[in-house]
Structures are given as C-alpha cells and as structure tokens.
Amino acid sequence: MGGGGQQTDRITGTNGRFGTYTWEEVQKHTKFGDQWIVVERKVYNVSQWVKRHPGGLRIIGHYAGEDATEAFTAFHPDLQLVRKYMKPLLIGELEASEPSQDCQKNAALVEDFRALREHLEAEGCFKTQPLFFILHLGHILLLEAIALMLVWCFGTGWINTAIVAVLMATAQSQAGWLQHDFGHLSVCKTSRWNHLVHKFVIGHLKGASAGWWNHRHFQHHAKPNVFKKDPDVNMLNAFVVGKVQPVEYGVKKIKHLPYNHQHKYFFFIGPPLLIPVYFQFQIFHNMILHGLWVDLAWCISYYVRYFLCYTQFYGVFWAVILFNFVRFMESHWFVWVTQMSHIPMNIDYEKHQDWLSMQLVATCNIEQSPFNDWFSGHLNFQIEHHLFPTMPRHNYWRAAPHARALCDKYGVKYQEKTLYGAFADIIRSLEKSGELWLDAYLNK
C-alpha cells in the first residue's frame, strides 16, 4: 500500500483504512474472495459485494485487478445511485503518479470515447420513446392473439397449424428482443421498473428467467468473445471457434467431435437445439439451483397460459409437439441473428483492451433496413449496442456515424456487412477454424 494512511479520517473503506495504491498492488487482487477494481481512479474492495451484485457474481470478477470505469459507465444508467452503494467498498485511490488507465491503454482514445458518450447523452440518444416499445409489445400480443384465433376459427389442420406455429415463433422471437431491451435497462426511467417489466416479458411471455439471462448476458457484454469470461463462446467442446482455440485443441489432440466438419454439423446441432434443448435445461436448472423462485413463478405462468389455450384444441401430446416446434423455429432465428455479429470476429483470451477496441474486435454491424431492424431487434447495430448497452435501440442509428468517426480517427476497424454475407460468414469462420484444428491435430 502507498503512503495514504494520513487520509484515514477523510474517508474510510470496509477494512477501516484509506490508502493510495499502484496498479501493481491493485493487480494482485484478482482471485475469488480477494478482488479489487478501480473506477474513476478510486480503488474498491468488491470481494464480498460480488455475491450481491444485481448483474451477477462473475461480471465484477472479470474486471478484478483492472480499471472498470468504462464498463461501470456503460452498464449503469443512474451512476449517482450506484456510487452511493459503492461508498462502503471504497478503500483508497490510485497514487497521483499512476496513470488512469491500466495495461498501457490509449489514454487519448479512452478520453475521446468518454467525450463521445457525453455528447450523445446531451443529444438525447439515451432518452426513450415510450411509444416505440408500446407498439412493439402490442405487435407481439397481436401475433399471439391472431395465432389463437386461427385455431379457434379454422381448427387444427396441418396448414393452419403451420401458420399458427410461424406466428407464434415470430412472437417469441420479437419478445426475445423486447426482453433484451428491458434487461439492459434501456426502456423505463428507473432500474427498478426495468427489472420488474423484464421479469414479466421474459417470464410470462417467453417462459424464461430474468436472473439467468442477466448472469449470462452481462458477462458477454463485459468481455465479448473472451474465453473463460464470455459464456457465449463456451461451446461445450461441440465447436472450436476463432484462431487460437482450434490450434490449442489440435496441439493437445483434443477431438470430442470431428471439428474439421463443424461447419456442416452446425446446421444439425447448433440452430435447431440451442433453445429447445440446451437453454431449456439450463434455465430450469439455474432457477432451481439458485433459488430464483420469483422467476420460476413467472416462468410457470407462461406454461400455464400456453397449455390452457392450446390443449383444448390439440390435446396434451400435440400441444407439446407444437410448443417444441415453435421453440425449434425460434432457435434458428435467435442463433443466426446473435452469432452473425460475433462468431466470425476475433475470439481470444483476455487482452486487457480499452472498451472501444475490445468491443470493435468482437462485433460487427449489419446494414440498416426496416426489415433488418425488425428482424434482428436492431441488433444489426451490434457495435453501437455493445458500446452503449443502455441506449434505447431506436437511437442506435443516431450514434452510428459518431462511433464510426471515432474508430476512423484511431484506426479501429468498423465492420458492416449485408445480412446474407453475415450469415455466410458464420459458416466460413467455422470452416476456417475447423481447418486450423485439423492442421494442428495432424502436424503439431
């Protein structure tokens, strides 16, 4: 600890002392049970707080020993409120001689990105248009109502059932984008209302868990495409992704599946199974394991509503078949949209980059059109969404030119693709990773 003991009377941390620290000292506290972070040059001991963090246990741990200022700003719409909760965790600050950024980050880039955020806030880009989300919710409920009316009026024939399934899958996919908005606290004025409505949308409209989603998705945003930190690149040994992992697996002679053919079997075990099998199991396992009983109640309300509506027409067996077919179609939609901006991008271990650079190497945009905006829930603006996760999605287009200009200034690559090109890149990147694995497996 540096020579800050004389400041103890001015402010006191959880351990009864206030000090000044070097980055070297901060970076010693990275293990579970002993974790420090730096926010706005202040040093916080979050070792115990991680267990109560609303964003989940692991997300703060991913920044242990690091400067978390940019992530702190990105995730919290009400910074003053969060700072109040952080006061008891404060143990000191960086020594005056220490830079504000760790790991040799570009201080000018960090400062310009902060200025960009302030400019966008002043321009009103973080203000929500309630009518947009009301209409979006309305069209989801309308799709569900039309599906039920079609069964009521025209029966359970194959053609009518196929139309009903498409309408229901569309409603489920669009509800997925809507819960994503509330989960990121980008709709309501207060976090409390965002969390409440999020539970309703993801629980009652989709049959999933807000707590499970928060724990998983915020990690993805905090460290996108970073092995051991982003759960979205944990492929459970079914796939190898990027350029580093395939070679690593090949050298170690790891062969759970023939990865050189992963771009082929992706069509059979990727999009079809993610939601109806893997997510379905993980959601219920997570709710029960962690005692998320409120989430479980909302989730059960979805299943009660669905089966009350459809078993009277189809019976239990065929209602279950219809349910899983809808999940099957929704899963394809979800996988292609969410992976088109990430799987073809750089996937690697932690590199300790600044927020802008870290997000840009892991994300790309898809060209704008009314269809692409609706189809992807505005995640065709994946770059802007990752840079400013609390920004309402109807304002991404306003932020995009400014983000591109800042990237051009510092030579950070800003990628934009066609929708078809982005889909094709998923397969091309899997094929390339498979070839890297095979070469390492046979020759290294």
Automatic annotation (TrEMBL):
It comes from Sinocyclocheilus rhinocerous. It is a multi-pass membrane protein. Belongs to the fatty acid desaturase type 1 family. One of its GO terms (biological process) is unsaturated fatty acid biosynthetic process. It comes from the Eukaryota. GO terms for molecular function: oxidoreductase activity, acting on paired donors, with oxidation of a pair of donors resulting in the reduction of molecular oxygen to two molecules of water. The lineage of its organism: Eukaryota, Metazoa, Chordata, Craniata, Vertebrata. This is Fatty acid desaturase 2. Pathway: Lipid metabolism; polyunsaturated fatty acid biosynthesis.
